[in-house]
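Reply to dn_fold:

You asked what the input looked like. This is it:
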Amino acid sequence: MIKRFVKKIKNAIKYRHFLSSLVFKQFKVRYAQSYLSMTWLVLEPLLLVLTLSYIFTAIGRKAPGGHPFPIFFYSGLLPWNYFVNSLVQGTTSFISDSSLIKKIYYPRELSVVKTIAVNFIDFLFANVAFIVILIIYNYSVNWNFFYIPVLLILQTTFVYGLALIFASMNVFVRDIGIIVNTLRTLWFWATPIIFYYPYAGKTKFLYYVNPMTGIIVNYRIIIMDGNPPVIKYLYSVLVASFILIILSSIVFKRLEREFVDVL
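and this is what came back:
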């Protein structure tokens, strides 16, 4: 299994120029006929955050810890969008790249990697407005912000394993894409994006069964409170990522050989 993982890394390095061209092509296609282009990456979450902030203020709700609503919502919404967009689009990545898969050989998992890379770049651009809001509300950067890349690596590993499994299965059973679209709505409400789920009482089980709960909560601990992440909140994503990386490799290896025939 370790050899297989090392081989994946070597393939990514070997085909790095091919991968970068796929990412560039994806961006070009996505924003080709859009007047505002990548500005939507900033405007869309900004409008949603402002709307949610107005609604919660109007009904007399307060953000946990006395933090401003825009900070609270942004710190959960942006990493969630990166995760769910990577998952949904990653699930259909082999089908989207079917013509390419039929024409030339390349490590097929790069289609999933490409999709996640594109959404990661989207995530970076979407943070522009968030950084401005952090400055407006006088939130300062401290050394604990260096933990954020660690959370991103964990989150990316988790979504890669999950997306690779779904993408492989979706080639043969197209219902998988519909299931994932339904799952993302249910998953959204089971994750503390809009509401705060404490590590106690009835919501405690979410930290054990929902890997994204610990990820989102730790983003907020770092950004809003300026504290280091709480490791116990990350147990679920650590275990899930480890299992998914192994399982996805097995599933992908068994199904990959039939991709061309089915696509």
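The mean pLDDT is 88.
Hope that clears it up.
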